[in-house]
Amino acid sequence: MAGIIGLTWSAPAVPLDPWIRAAVPVVGWLLLPLASLMVPIFGIRRVPHMKRKLAWQLVLPLVTGSVLAFVSQGAGEDAALQERGRWANAKVVSVANDNSNKTRQCVLQKLHGQEIKPDLKENHGCEDGVDRGEVLRVRFDPQGVAGPEGESWEPGSNGDVIAVLATLFVAFGVWGCMRMSRGERE
Questions:
Q1: Is the pTM of this model over 0.85?
Q2: Rounded distance, CA 100 to CA 104, Å?
Q3: Are 146 and 101 in contact (CB under 8 A)?
Q4: What's the rounded Cα separation, in Å, for the pair 104 and 122?
Q5: Which DSSP letter does residue 149 get?
Q6: Contact 13, 74 (CB under 8 A)
Q7: Please, are residues 7 and 32 in contact by the beta-carbon 8 Å criterion?
Q8: Closest CA to 57 of 35, 70, 41, 45
């Protein structure tokens, strides 16, 4: 649990090497929660093959762990923007995925020509009414680690949500392991 929260929060909040930052979503959202599911099934307890069907209870920590990683990464991006972020007026250079079902992304550039990386996503300020050539006020990370946010951005506090998800992650894991132990005794 600490690995999921720490890794996914620190990736945007602490400027890491690009190759580490690229691996964090895979490790935090998938591999660590999957390990929380697989270790009790195959490592800690020797569960006969016929009784592994009891392990479905451990899917809840897998889902909760993935959501925990997603929320922690968002909290890390908010912390990065709050600490290092700068407000700037930016011109929309182009809009990707404008006429498709994919998430719209606006390529931004400061008024003096410096490009803002990464691109502004649809639910962060690149809504349907935004077109090429428009000037938007955005908060961006000068190091290009955290994604930019539109003018309506306010720093969020996800501490309560992270605490609830972490508690559920541990509770579901303990419950699933106890159910498996009870199934071994039967």
A1: no
A2: 8
A3: no
A4: 5
A5: B
A6: no
A7: yes
A8: 41
